[in-house]
Design a protein that fits this description.
The complex is a heterodimer of chains A (382) and B (365).
Chain A (H helix, E strand, L loop, with lengths): L2 H16 L7 H16 L3 E8 L2 E8 L6 E3 L14 E5 L16 E6 L5 E6 L6 H69 L6 H29 L8 E4 H11 L6 E5 L4 E4 L1 H17 L6 E10 L2 E8 L29 H11 L4 E6 L3 E9 L1
Chain B lengths: L1 E2 L4 H12 L3 E7 L6 H10 L4 E6 L1 E4 L2 E3 L3 E6 L2 E8 L20 E7 L5 H12 L4 E7 L10 E3 L2 E3 L2 E7 L3 E6 L3 E9 L1 E3 L2 E4 L5 H13 L8 H5 L4 E3 L7 E8 L5 E4 L6 E7 L2 H18 L5 E7 H7 L3 H15 L4 E7 L2 E4 L5 E4 L3 E6 L1
Parallel strand pairs in B: 2-3, 8-9, 21-22
Antiparallel strand pairs in B: 1-6, 2-6, 3-10, 4-5, 4-22, 7-12, 8-12, 9-23, 10-11, 13-25, 14-20, 15-16, 16-19, 17-18, 17-20, 18-19, 21-25, 23-24
Helix pairs in contact in B: 1-2, 6-8
Classes of the chains: A alpha+beta (382), B alpha+beta (365).
Chain lengths: 382, 365
């Protein structure tokens, strides 16, 4: 063979190999590679048969033809098991059951694609040579790997889809249950109010205390249900963003919550960021309310601030409260994980905070010292 | 049959009389002074089934015409249809029940200036495979301005193809006569019909170096096509002539705009030909079809318009070589066709492809 022909052969193999792996879709991947082989080699057809349990199934064919489904063992007249890498055949009617298209004469090359089945290349003309096939072998090996990747990708997509469906179902379920729980809770609240008001002269102190405990529990449960509702409505697929001035957001929070007189809140200048005002208010409010609730100092202090961290803003909410033990640093962001029994603590506030930060592709973490206070840090994209 | 009158009623009457109960293939010269929409309406009223296209020039016998309608009868039609939105790849190819021991021929005219023609041909082959022969060409104007150019009973379309599947044997010869000057080169980057890189370099620089050295001519600002029409690219194939791609112009980035698409990493040679090689090739295409045929009823020639631009007055010799070869073997058959923007055929029954600068001769039995 002349050196020029060698170069052409090598470059053609380069062309074939570059057509592999351009797509993770099985059919598209086969189309790109096998149609090119047919065009350049002047072949007429290509198809893949794959083993599934004891059956042989056609998974791709160009031209499309009929689909193949046959038992691997006894029905096969061509001994595919004996093909280690590839084999060349003259057409015989043994191939009739193995071919999706009607052929009556010609030449067939079969490549063993291992777990991916068998690739059949068909030409009406006598233009398939053993030399061609052995040159194609490494490229076919690469193609086999790409088919494996396509299947893995499809499997991954399917898992992700299932996960998405399950998440949605869970979210819908939480939403529905929360709504359903609210109604009996309202009844309990009303009935205990009537009991307290209408029968106050009949209850002794113990009875009155128990009524108070019931009402506290109802209030806690109401807060918890509201939390679950909030949590389930934070949806990654439904995020609207616009410019939000965080200074205005903090002012609105401080006007809407009750800050005890012994607690001072220091607000540093905050930026305007791109986000959803309602979610951002939830995020800051939950952290501020927590900082107030767990402050045991006579002169409580809460500071809100930020620093520029490149593509992110890094915010902090710092308090001089009780502090949190390091072993709870991860646990506190998990739903329904509350560190102590508190009528105002539902264990969902920080989960909501984390979900909102995740929604904005940020991070949240904390530093804390028992007795000295806690600082929550979180980042939001600029 | 050639129709030169411009009176719609006369045209329709002539077509009806010629084809009788069959369908018509209409190849219309782009300068024919008729209202195409009116013609379609009149043919529909007369219940004439047809497909067709507008071309820079049409062929009747051994004459080339800018005006006139060449009519071929389409016998034993199984299916006539139009495929819209070729460029968007948004269409479905109708299913046809091919009978096992019958011969079939598929004829198609496609808007030669639309994109994704290769995808359209690939879809045809994917659906019909080896059950039919394929034959056809690209319609459109020599101005290279894309506009409606294919017709059928449904209307006058651009970015579309019209198709006729016939239960009929056909014998096809395909040749171009261009041969390698230098190569192979790798088209390392391409987008549609634009070559953006050859061997990872500016494509015009690579092309220019080879062509100027071979032709002893120098590219200037305004002579690209004058030189390039003699130096097309050839997509390298095994066991067959290469597929020609015609460089039409160079843009200000030095990218080469071709008729017909190329894909990334396509292997190409730079080709050249002369009067003799082209005419010989045309004759061989005719011989190929004649040698396979037994009792043909008509011949259709699909010849690339760029061959006439290259051969100029000598193109008559090419057409003579084809028509004489056919007439010598089959003196009484009609010869018609068109000078097209791209040619369509399955090369020696292989995978279906879109060619440039090529002659396709089909004898229909």
């Amino acid at each position: 063979m002349k050196i020029e022909n060698h170069i052409t052969t090598i470059l053609q193999l380069y062309e074939f190999s570059m057509a592999i792996g351009k797509s993770l879709d099985y059919k598209e991947s086969c189309d790109m590679f096998l149609k090119l082989i047919l065009k350049r080699k002047n072949f007429n057809a290509a198809w893949i048969l794959e083993k599934e349990d004891s059956m042989m199934l056609s998974t791709y064919a160009i031209p499309i033809g009929k689909s193949i489904q046959l038992k691997f063992d006894t029905n096969l007249k061509v001994d595919l098991n004996s093909i280690e890498d590839f084999k060349y055949f003259e057409y015989s009617n043994d191939f009739d059951t193995l071919s999706p298209i009607g052929i009556d004469k010609g030449h067939i090359a079969v490549f063993n694609l291992k777990e991916q089945g068998y690739l059949f290349l068909f030409s009406k003309k006598d233009n398939i040579t053993i030399e061609d096939l052995s040159q194609l072998q490494p490229v076919i090996d690469k193609f086999t790997m790409s088919l494996k990747a396509c299947k893995a990708f499809k499997q991954q997509q399917s898992l992700l889809n299932n996960l998405e469906v399950r998440n949605q179902e869970l979210s819908d379920y939480a939403h529905m249950v929360s709504h359903d729980l609210k109604s009996p809770l309202r009844s309990i609240d009303t009935l205990t109010t009537w009991l307290r008001d209408d029968y106050s002269d009949k209850f002794d102190n113990n009875g009155k205390e128990q009524i108070k405990l019931i009402r506290n529990s109802v209030e806690k449960m109401d807060t918890l249900i509201n939390g679950i509702l909030e949590y389930s409505t934070i949806n990654k697929n439904q995020i609207e963003t616009y410019d939000v001035n965080l200074n205005t957001v903090i002012d609105a929070i401080l006007n809407s919550i009750q800050v005890p007189e012994h607690i001072t809140i220091i607000k540093n200048e905050l930026p305007v960021i791109h986000g959803d005002k309602y979610r951002l208010q939830q995020l800051f409010q939950n952290l501020i309310v927590n900082a107030i609730a767990y402050n045991d100092k006579t002169q409580g202090e809460i500071e809100i601030g930020m620093k520029d961290a490149g593509v992110f803003w890094e915010f902090f909410v710092k308090d001089n409260g009780k502090g949190i033990e390091a072993v709870y640093f991860d646990k506190i962001f998990k739903t329904f994980e509350s560190l102590e029994s508190n009528v105002n603590s539902t264990g969902i506030g920080l989960s909501i905070v984390k979900k909102i930060v995740d929604l904005y592709k940020g991070n949240i973490w904390l530093t804390s010292e028992i007795g000295q206070g806690t600082t929550f840090y979180f980042t939001l994209k600029k | 049959m050639l129709i030169t009158t411009t009176h719609i009623d006369d045209i329709v009457a002539s077509i009806s009389n010629h084809i009788k109960e069959d369908s018509a293939l209409l190849s219309i010269g782009e300068h024919t002074e008729i209202d195409i929409e009116q013609l379609i309406k009149a043919l529909n009223i007369a219940e004439v089934k047809f497909i067709g296209g507008l071309f820079p020039k049409v062929i009747h016998g051994n004459t080339i015409l800018e005006k006139g309608i060449v009519v071929n009868t389409l016998n034993h039609v199984e299916e006539l249809y139009v495929v819209n939105n070729i460029s968007l790849q948004n269409y479905t190819i109708p299913q046809i029940n091919f009978e096992k021991d019958e011969g079939y021929s598929l004829f198609t005219y496609v808007d030669g200036l639309t994109s994704n023609i290769s995808h359209y041909l690939s879809e045809l082959y994917e659906n019909y495979g080896m059950q039919t022969n394929y034959f056809g060409g690209g319609a459109g104007s020599l101005t290279l301005e894309q506009k409606p150019c294919v017709i059928c009973n449904e209307g006058f379309f651009q970015d579309a193809a019209v198709v006729c599947v016939m239960r009929m044997h056909s014998r096809i010869g395909v040749r171009h006569g261009w041969s390698k000057v230098k190569g192979p080169f790798i088209v390392t980057k391409a987008e549609g019909n634009v070559i953006k890189e050859i061997n990872w370099k500016n494509p015009f620089e690579v092309y220019k170096k080879v062509v100027e050295a071979h032709s002893n001519k120098v590219f200037t600002d305004d002579n690209f096509f004058d030189i390039a029409k003699g130096y097309p690219f050839g997509i390298v194939k095994d066991n067959a002539e290469c597929i020609v791609r015609d460089p039409l112009m160079v843009n200000d980035k030095g990218e080469l705009i071709c008729v017909g698409e190329l894909e990334d990493n396509t292997l190409v040679d730079i080709l050249n030909g002369n009067e003799e090689t082209l005419i010989n090739a045309a004759q061989r295409a005719a011989e190929e079809s004649v040698n396979q045929a037994t009792h043909p009823r008509k011949a259709i020639i699909i010849d690339c318009i760029s061959r006439i631009l290259f051969l100029e007055d000598n193109f008559e010799k090419e057409l003579d070589a084809i028509t004489k070869t056919i007439s010598n073997a089959y003196p009484n058959i009609s010869i018609g066709g068109a000078l097209t923007l791209g040619e369509i055929s399955s090369y020696g029954e292989g995978y279906l492809d879109f060619y440039n600068k090529t002659v396709v001769v089909g004898l229909f039995e």
